[in-house]
Amino acid sequence: MKKLSIIALLMTVFGMLLWQPQLASADELTGHSHEQGLRYLISKSALVKDAKGSYRPNDNVTRGEFASYLAKSMNLESTSDIVFKDVPDTYVHAKDIKLAASAGIITGYGDGSFKPNAAISRQHMAVMLERAIDYLNIPKGTSSITFKDNAAIFKDYRQAVAIGAQLGIIQGSNGNFMPEKNATIGQASSFILRLMQLADDPDASGNSNSGNSNGGDTNSGNSNDGDTNTGSSKYAIKEISNGALVGNQGFSTFEAAEKAVTKNTQVIVQNDKIVKMSSGYVLTSNYVALKSETINDAISVAANTEMEYLSSDATQVKVRLAGQVGYLKHADVTLIPFSMSKGRSYYSNENGEIKHTLYDYNTNKYSSSYVFGKAPSFMKPGEKYYSWDGIYFTNGSGSSKGDAYNYYQYLPARAQTQYTAQEIDAYIMNKLAEVESTGASLYKDATKKSKLIGLGQTLKDVEAKSQINAMLVLSIAQHESAYGMSPHAQDLNNLFGLYVYDTNPLNKEFDSVADNINELVDKFLQPNYITPGGSPGKNFSNGAVVGSKALGFNVKYASDPFWGAKVAGHYYRAEKALGFKDANNPYTIGLTTTTGLNVRTGAAVSFNPLFTYARSGMPVIISSSATNGWYEVLSDKLYTGKAFVSKDYVQVINTVK
User: Fold this and answer.
1) 465: helix, strand or coil
2) Which listed residue, 73, 145, 453, 576, has the most CB atoms within 10 A of its CB?
3) How far is Cα 343 from Cα 358, in angstroms, rounded to an integer?
4) Share of the chain above pLDDT 70, in %
5) Is 579 found in the same domain as 484?
6) What is the pLDDT of residues 307-322, one digit of tens each?
7) Is the pLDDT of residue 228 over 50?
8) Does residue 552 sit in the same domain as residue 425?
9) HSE-up of residue 583 (Cα within 13 Å, Cβ side)
10) Can you give the pTM of this predicted structure?
């Protein structure tokens, strides 16, 4: 009996072994330091084998691949009409790249390309990951994390790196971040796994990454640090009381909460973030691209930019930036009711000059200020003035208000300065001595090392050849290059930050500063910013002035909404030092008042159009009084002959100078 029992037991066990399902066999990912992340991407159909049957975990990840990983992991679905010239529809990741671009997670280069096959650097990944964090509404706060090699991180990317490190998505090695180093597919998979763990993706839950032996990033067992909604109430109505939010009436949908709002002092919040209010302003929390319905073009906008609040729904906020109306995602902005504002940027009349004082919302302090011209007559000393567009100003009570066009900000580029090369050189040296005397380390030995030294004749030669104001070019150079002392100026002869974009810096070196100036004029200002219509595919011509986000170069040239005013400030201060030669013999400036306005070669409709202004509000220099209903103007198109425009469609403006 005992022998039979043992035999029966052995047969049963043997049978179980025969019928037991086979375990998955080991593959190239088994035991890999990024195995969990790699298998997560495989589960999302984001990572597939190549023709040789490999997942290539140790290969460098490309920009196109990383964009595809994000799009598939985040289940992106909405696309817009964004097109990159080097991403044809036949490209393997074309659809995912468009999805990521439409979500605002990736951007291209200034020439309209994306460079999908280029290896991606760790700092570029950090920027894309921060945008993904915002898109997924993952709370991030403000981080002060720094690395030993923080100076090597492009300054506009340091916040993104710090946020990613704070959330445990990206980390360094031995205190270094190695921003320019390329990441592998394995490293990219771990970054995205950690991101999606924070986003509560069920497919990412339970996964952890025990370490990274190839690149320095490790994960110490990061769980989900993001806020979760534990109740059934997704939205709440709160009331503003003494500058704070009180109450917590919950609703399952935005629409239900919206219907329940009965007072202007009530706001709708989601996870303690205001998503709808009756009035207030909107603040960008990071760099964004605003698709302006006004000019049907995308406008880059820097973080910490104040915009008019128009309305909002559950998914987006309608804003107006210097007259440009568009929409932004809630993740990209903060809504601030006027009654909860702790401070706002403002203008003031300081000793007869207009001063702009900026507010830093990260520190809740007034951070900096600059003077950019004479104050308009309606500005009373001691009053704070506010403006959405830098043109129309009003004090808090509305009792003192008016339009003010700063002469240097709205002076068309075809104007000629009256200063000689020698006067410009003398001004440059005096200015360099002034900044050097501040003792700031950046300006140490500026009078010996600045790349601005001796540029007077070069600037005047450019003015004669290209019909672009020499003082305007100098003002842009001073602003962009820290008076010729910035690293790009010193190391690359790049005074203007050419090819240095908010999202993808390209460190191009120029043989000389003169070459750099000619590149600015011949490849940027002349064809794209000054000539109406721009070169093919470059819709940057919004007026031949430095301007603002309302009109001029600033609409497309810089994400800083006050770039034009700051450049104008350099011109004004130079004028002040040199005796106001230009302002004392000013040009007459007008604004066009209609779209599709033709500028002709003669003072009659029978003459051929020289060019056409597509939009209204374009600044023109009126070179002679009206004759037979026509103004003679300086052509924005490079042209040595006379140009004319109908007087009926131009409004002369009074500039402040």
Assistant:
1) helix
2) 73
3) 9
4) 89
5) yes
6) 999 999 999 999 999 9
7) no
8) yes
9) 22
10) 0.69
